């Protein structure tokens, strides 16, 4: 058995008694209560999901397996001559909580290389879709189309014991992950680069090969590594992660579950916000023409957006109450690699002005930037200017976290998800003390 799978099997065996003990001996212990506002308001803050893969502190931001973003980036092995770690190392880390050695990562790199080829019927499907279809729709359709490959679905149909579920789930997740960057690159080049495609480089790591197949030179490979790791996981309650978990809880396989999660990510309040940021910036530039943007003009444009009833994209968050460390990590990259980029300067200017504007506006609970306020600008700098595509990049990264999560869901035997709904009358009755 491959080393990662062996280690994962050991971690699962160690973890299972903890979950079983909690359920058996402490199942009645309360960890929160639900208010009417939470029931109507999207279950905000209701504690009813369990994951050990990442935890989001409102003031500190995300920790992957207990490590902050800078700690994670520093700990994981990197390809030779590169600034950012292998995404394969991050996968190992998210799954097992352990930092792999260089040799261990290389085993995963080789395994993914061997599973990378996209089936021809996926290419045929993508080519049959109208070219102006949104790339997220294409990406989701490609993932769903591969459901026929599911090892889990086959093994389930043959009859499999519950404690074995994680193993074919892990196989499906690995097969799926290995193909995602090539699928994304195929969509990109078919739609935007004259349908001219670049074959994979058999020697490159996952993100390095993505940069290669997209047709972008160094340091775009490091941009891709950074981007995919930063976007991988944000605990379980966000729309994409929760959708994947929910769909997989019906024992739908990884293909069904990931495709559904990608559809959730495609919403403008979630992953699509990164393309909305670019759209906002372009509109701003169109309005102010060649003028150098100033704090005053940015403030005016932000107020205009708010007055017209729209949100300021890239700002606010359901859980975070400070600047997203994923924003900060990208800002550090940009400060180092593209300090004079005019759009980056504008993003910095918006960062200076928008929190104050949002505070004065008085609605958003969090006036600080989230990950999406920055990501499009780095892509733009390196030549990826078709912003419709930005959420696909988010989706490739997000897959790493959510697929690690559903592997563990099956390992720990989490049941089908089924929260309870109530009627408005019931809420009115409770509210009036009936
Ligand atoms: N601009 C203007 N208004 C905002 C705002 C923003 N950036 N963020 C929140 N608000 C408003 C909400 O629309 C809501 O108004 P309402 O009472 O009229 O409905 C009010 O402030 C309270 O909202 P909240 O509790 O602070 O936020 P939430 O948990 O309901 O929503 C989020 C969180 C991210 C959807 C919201 O902040 C938003 O729409 N931001 C802009 C879009 C964005 O950047 N999304 C990406 C988030 C990160 C990600 O998932 N990729």
Automatic annotation (TrEMBL):
Keyword annotations from UniProtKB, A to Z: Acyltransferase, Transferase
Family annotation (Gene3D superfamilies): Citrate Synthase, domain 1, Cytochrome P450-Terp, domain 2
Keyword DNA repair attributed: no
InterPro entries the UniProt entry points to: Citrate_synth-like_lrg_a-sub (IPR016142), Citrate_synth-like_sm_a-sub (IPR016143), Citrate_synthase (IPR002020), Citrate_synthase_AS (IPR019810), Citrate_synthase_sf (IPR036969)
Origin superkingdom: Bacteria
EC number(s) stated in the UniProt entry for this protein: 2.3.3.16
Any Pfam family matching the protein: Citrate_synt
UniProt cross-references to PROSITE patterns, sorted A to Z: CITRATE_SYNTHASE (PS00480)
GO molecular function annotations of the record: citrate synthase activity
GO biological process, one term: tricarboxylic acid cycle
Family label: Belongs to the citrate synthase family.
Protein name, per record: citrate synthase (unknown stereospecificity)
Organism (species): Thermoanaerobaculum aquaticum
């Amino acid at each position: 058995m491959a080393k990662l799978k062996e280690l994962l099997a050991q971690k699962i065996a160690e973890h299972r008694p903890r979950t079983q003990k909690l359920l058996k001996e402490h199942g009645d212990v309360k960890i929160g209560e639900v208010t009417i506002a939470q029931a109507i308001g999207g279950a905000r803050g209701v504690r009813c999901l369990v994951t050990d893969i990442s935890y989001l502190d409102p003031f500190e931001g995300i920790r992957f397996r207990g490590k902050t973003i800078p700690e994670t980036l520093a700990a994981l092995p990197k390809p030779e001559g590169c600034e950012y770690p292998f995404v394969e190392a991050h996968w190992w880390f998210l799954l097992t909580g352990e930092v792999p050695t260089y040799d261990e990562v290389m085993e995963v790199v080789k395994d993914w290389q061997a599973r990378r080829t996209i089936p021809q019927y996926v290419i045929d499907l993508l080519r049959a879709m109208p070219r102006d279809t949104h790339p997220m729709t294409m990406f989701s359709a490609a993932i769903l189309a591969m459901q026929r490959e599911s090892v889990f679905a086959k093994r389930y149909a043959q009859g499999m014991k519950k404690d074995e579920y994680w193993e074919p789930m892990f196989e499906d997740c690995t097969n799926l992950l290995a193909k995602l960057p090539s699928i994304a690159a195929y969509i990109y080049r078919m739609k935007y680069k004259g349908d001219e495609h670049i074959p994979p480089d058999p020697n490159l790591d996952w993100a390095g090969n993505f940069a290669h197949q997209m047709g972008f030179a160094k340091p775009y490979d490091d941009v891709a590594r950074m981007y995919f790791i930063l976007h991988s996981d944000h605990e379980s309650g966000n729309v994409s992660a929760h959708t994947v978990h929910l769909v997989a809880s019906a024992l739908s396989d990884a293909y069904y579950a990931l495709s559904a999660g990608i559809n959730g990510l495609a919403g403008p309040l979630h992953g699509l916000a990164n393309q909305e940021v670019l759209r906002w910036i372009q509109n701003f530039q169109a309005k102010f023409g060649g003028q150098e943007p100033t704090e005053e003009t940015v403030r005016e444009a932000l107020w205009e957006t708010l007055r017209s009833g729209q949100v300021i994209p890239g700002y606010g968050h359901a859980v975070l109450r400070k600047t997203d460390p994923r924003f900060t990590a990208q800002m550090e990259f940009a400060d180092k690699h593209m300090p004079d980029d005019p759009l980056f300067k504008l993003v910095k200017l918006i960062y200076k002005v928008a929190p104050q504007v949002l505070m004065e506006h008085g609605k958003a609970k969090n006036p600080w930037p989230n990950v999406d306020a920055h990501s499009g600008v780095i892509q733009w700098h390196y030549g990826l200017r078709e912003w419709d595509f930005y959420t696909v990049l988010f989706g490739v990264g997000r897959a790493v976290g959510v697929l690690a999560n559903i592997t563990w869901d099956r390992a720990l035997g989490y049941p089908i998800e089924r929260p309870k709904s109530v009627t408005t009358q019931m809420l009115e009755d409770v509210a009036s003390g009936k």
